[in-house]
């Protein structure tokens, strides 16, 4: 019907303000299931508790929805009937004609008890509902209607402001065609209680782009969501509070998708972001006393194509076992790096093998603790045929106790696929390099494959956390028998050193490797003073990258690394502790120890007095002028990183002077990533999820998560455990995430959950496998465990057999 006819009322019955006594029989209305049929109809209800003329907003909304129903593919069209007469809700014959009911109402008590009971019966029979903007103010005393809407607005009226909407659901028909960052004016409502996790949020509004006023919800501010509710389907958007909204092409497409789903013209998933639809279960039991029979000191995991999970223990023994810390003892630091296999078919754990490693020196001061050991594991791309397992580790047999040096290596072993036993005699050493073991820390360790058979290897800067006041690890003085252990320019900033890097090699069948094209160096570069490079280097300038991953759909590398220890920024030395995540699309220098975050420089220090500052580093033209450098002096320019966070918050940034140097004044900081915060923090990179629509697995995570990058932290208090979306156009140059959502209610936190995240990856069944490190350090304990997080919410709705016009 034309919008101009609306005021007359299209359906007969008493006025919406009439309040007859409820008829108990209405709670069992005989609406056929589901309402509507192939002749798809939408009822638009605009009744208001206040009298007066029709609102221009109502007229604009009716006209827009009528237009939506008359355009698009022929099999997705529908007719619209608009009314302000609430008596339709007590007429089951009339109500059952409609596939969806749209509430475009100014709020208030618009339905009497009989009418609300009729709406309830309609939904229970499988009806659809779409609420627009102020519909969230309707039926304020009804708990059932609160559930139907999902959230209630906070007190006060919103004003029209332009803001950015983050469109997080890239598969729902209401959002899949919208921009990742949708900039538009509207009246932005604040919510009394944030519905995230109870509803399936498809879009959020970014509060930093407007003035949210009192009752602001913070970084997680849902604006559109949906859910399967009480037998039917409900979609709500807080947008549509202005007449101009209904003239926007993108907003009409948003409404179109909502209407297609609620009318049963298409199926869609409105369950994936509801946290109650996930189950987290511990797979491994505590170790037997004095043994690591189930799990070692957790340090990484990988899944096989048949679903088996391989996970490693770094080298710490059970807490009851002795730890040798005396350098005069030949067994100093001797530990065991275990490889365990969990078989989901049997639920049993097998100890596949154990390496004798340097890596069991426990906790203590800077010159006692150690992070070496068994650091990384990967399976060959042809593992099902050849059984090859790649391990990144520090053998105890290679240590030099006099000079306190060791050899790190990446080796290939063969696993007996039938018995899950590793043949330790089958070792072929692909790559090896020296590391100092006099002073802890930063071994890194993660590995990953791309689709071309290239193996990426993450190495830490092999540098002390001390001697630089927690800022740049660039103190050139401390050394042990001539080997520096506090100057990361020797390692991460050195083009001729394999530490503090992400390496990329192509393993060959004979146990050797070749160098793929496109690494940062060829290995043949020379320069002033005879400097040189290593051709294995793909990324330089990383501090301690424990976990890396490669999205084989795009062959993009994802990495995270732990920052230094300074608790706050310094106007003398530079930025505070920044833990970092990066999307790496090409060979690059990520900055450490010269720059961090979005190219925020540190101050140089040098001989003869490292406590005195020199000039600020130039992130665009960094120079390695350390006396400990044996590589090139002129380094590749620094690429800004995508995510960084400090104890104060996420993405700290500062005003910069004419030379581009930040002020580093805490009171002048702005925080560009408000969903992040640190404290004690240790970045733990995760995978990019890829949904497999050919898989019949009943536990796989839904398509909603496809393309989302999982970033987390070892700790679980204020630190991140989030899924983020990146913009492909900007991610390779340090572009910020465009959307983030918390995973803390899905990957559970707390002492009885996964408190200390040490590794996570998706298996071939589409479930998420997670390692909890445990509650101590340099050991395993009763909380050290392998977990699995599965999806239990079922498939998209409505059922295929209930679609209005056949399967779509």
Describe this structure in words.
The protein has about 800 residues and is mainly β. It folds into 2 domains: about 40-270, Rossmann fold (3-Layer(aba) Sandwich); about 280-790, TolB, C-terminal domain (Neuraminidase, 6 Propeller). The strands form 11 sheets. Strands 2-1-3-4-9-8-7-5-6 form a 9-stranded mixed beta sheet, with helices on both faces. Helix 1 packs across helix 5 (about 250-260). The longest helix has 15 residues, at about 55-70. The radius of gyration is 30 Å and the shape is globular.
Write the layout of secondary structure elements.
Elements: E1 41-45, H1 56-70, E2 79-83, H2 92-95, E3 100-103, H3 113-124, E4 128-132, H4 143-149, E5 160-166, E6 181-187, E7 200-206, E8 222-229, E9 232-237, H5 249-262, E10 278-282, E11 298-303, E12 309-313, E13 334-343, E14 348-358, E15 374-379, H6 383-386, E16 388-393, E17 405-416, E18 421-436, E19 444-449, E20 455-459, E21 479-480, E22 483-484, E23 501-507, E24 513-514, E25 537-540, E26 547-551, E27 556-561, E28 579-584, E29 588-589, E30 595-596, E31 600-601, E32 603-605, E33 613-616, E34 643-646, E35 649-650, E36 652-653, E37 670-671, E38 683-688, E39 709-713, E40 721-725, E41 739-742, E42 757-762, E43 768-772, E44 785-791
Parallel strand pairs: 1-2, 1-3, 3-4, 4-9, 25-29
Antiparallel strand pairs: 5-6, 5-7, 7-8, 8-9, 10-44, 11-12, 12-13, 13-14, 15-16, 16-17, 17-18, 19-20, 20-23, 21-22, 23-24, 23-25, 26-27, 27-28, 28-34, 30-31, 32-33, 34-35, 36-37, 38-39, 39-40, 40-41, 42-43, 43-44
């Amino acid at each position: 019907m034309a919008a101009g006819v609306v005021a007359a009322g299209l359906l007969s019955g008493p006025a919406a303000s009439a309040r007859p006594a409820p008829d108990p029989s209405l709670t069992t209305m005989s609406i056929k299931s589901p309402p509507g049929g192939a002749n798809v109809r939408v009822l638009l209800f605009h009744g208001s508790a206040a009298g007066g003329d029709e609102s221009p907003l109502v007229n604009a909304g009716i006209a827009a929805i009528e237009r939506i129903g008359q355009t698009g593919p022929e099999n997705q069209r529908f007719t619209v009937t608009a009314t302000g007469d609430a008596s339709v809700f007590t007429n089951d014959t009339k109500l059952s004609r409609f596939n969806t009911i749209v509430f475009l109402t100014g709020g208030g008590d618009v339905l009497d008890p009989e009418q609300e009971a009729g709406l309830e019966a309609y939904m229970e029979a499988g009806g659809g509902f779409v609420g627009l903007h102020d519909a969230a103010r309707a039926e304020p005393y009804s708990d059932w209607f609160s559930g139907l809407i999902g959230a209630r607005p906070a007190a006060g009226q919103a004003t029209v402001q332009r803001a950015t909407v983050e469109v997080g659901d890239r598969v729902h028909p209401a959002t899949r065609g919208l921009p990742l960052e949708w900039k538009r004016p509207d009246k932005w409502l604040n919510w009394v209680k944030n519905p995230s996790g109870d509803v399936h949020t498809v879009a959020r509004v970014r509060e930093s782009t407007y003035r949210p006023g009192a009752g602001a919800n913070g970084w997680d501010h849902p604006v559109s969501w949906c859910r399967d509710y009480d037998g039917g389907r409900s979609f709500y958007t807080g947008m549509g509070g202005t007449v101009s909204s209904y003239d926007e092409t993108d907003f009409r497409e948003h409404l179109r998708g909502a209407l297609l789903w609620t009318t049963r013209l298409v199926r869609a998933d409105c369950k994936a972001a509801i946290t109650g639809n996930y189950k987290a279960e511990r797979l491994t039991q505590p170790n037997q006393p004095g043994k690591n029979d189930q799990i070692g000191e957790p340090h990484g995991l990988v899944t096989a194509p048949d679903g088996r999970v391989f996970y490693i223990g770094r080298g710490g023994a059970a807490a009851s076992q002795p730890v040798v810390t005396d350098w005069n003892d030949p067994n100093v630091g001797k530990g065991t790096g275990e490889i365990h296999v969990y078989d989901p078919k049997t639920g049993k754990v097998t100890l596949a093998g154990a390496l004798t490693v340097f890596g069991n020196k426990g906790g203590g001061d800077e010159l006692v603790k150690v992070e070496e050991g068994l650091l990384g594991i990967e399976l060959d791309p042809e593992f099902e045929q050849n059984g090859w397992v790649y391990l990144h580790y520090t053998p105890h047999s290679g240590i030099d106790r006099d000079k306190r040096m060791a050899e790190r290596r990446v080796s290939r072993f063969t696993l007996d696929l039938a018995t899950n036993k590793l043949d330790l005699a089958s070792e072929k050493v692909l790559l090896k390099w020296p590391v100092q073991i006099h002073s802890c820390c930063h071994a890194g360790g993660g590995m990953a494959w791309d689709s071309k058979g290239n193996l990426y290897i993450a190495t830490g800067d092999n540098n002390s956390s001390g001697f630089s006041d927690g800022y740049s690890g660039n103190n050139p003085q401390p050394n042990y028998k001539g080997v520096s252990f506090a100057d990361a320019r020797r390692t991460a900033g050195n083009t001729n050193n394999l530490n503090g890097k992400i390496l990329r090699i192509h393993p060959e069948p004979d146990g050797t490797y070749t160098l793929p094209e496109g690494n940062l160096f060829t290995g043949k570069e020379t320069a002033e003073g005879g400097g040189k490079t290593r051709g294995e280097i793909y990324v330089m300038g990383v501090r301690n990258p424990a976990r890396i991953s490669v999205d084989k759909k795009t062959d993009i590398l994802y990495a995270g690394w732990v920052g230094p220890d300074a608790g706050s920024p310094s106007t003398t030395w530079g930025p505070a502790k920044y833990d970092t995540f990066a999307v790496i699309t090409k060979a690059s220098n990520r900055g450490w120890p010269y720059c961090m975050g979005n190219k925020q420089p540190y101050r140089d220090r040098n001989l003869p007095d490292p406590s005195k500052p020199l000039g600020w580093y130039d992130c665009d033209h960094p120079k390695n002028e350390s006396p400990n450098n044996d590589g090139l002096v002129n380094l590749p320019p620094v690429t800004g990183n995508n995510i960084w966070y400090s104890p104060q918050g996420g993405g700290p940034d500062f005003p910069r002077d004419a030379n581009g140097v930040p002020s580093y004044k805490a009171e002048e900081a702005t925080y560009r990533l408000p969903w992040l915060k640190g404290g004690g923090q240790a970045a733990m990179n995760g995978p990019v999820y890829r949904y497999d629509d050919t898989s019949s697995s009943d536990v796989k995570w839904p398509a909603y998560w496809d393309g989302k990058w999982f970033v987390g932290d070892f700790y679980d208090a204020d630190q991140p455990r989030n899924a983020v979306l990146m913009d492909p156009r900007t991610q390779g140059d340090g572009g910020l995430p465009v959307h983030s959502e918390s995973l803390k209610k899905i990957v559970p936190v707390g002492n009885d959950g996964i408190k200390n995240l040490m590794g996570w990856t998706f298996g071939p069944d589409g479930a998420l496998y997670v390692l909890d490190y445990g509650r101590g350090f340099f050991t395993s304990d009763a909380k050290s465990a392998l977990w699995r997080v599965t999806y239990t919410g079922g498939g998209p709705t409505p059922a295929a057999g209930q679609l209005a016009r056949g399967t779509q």
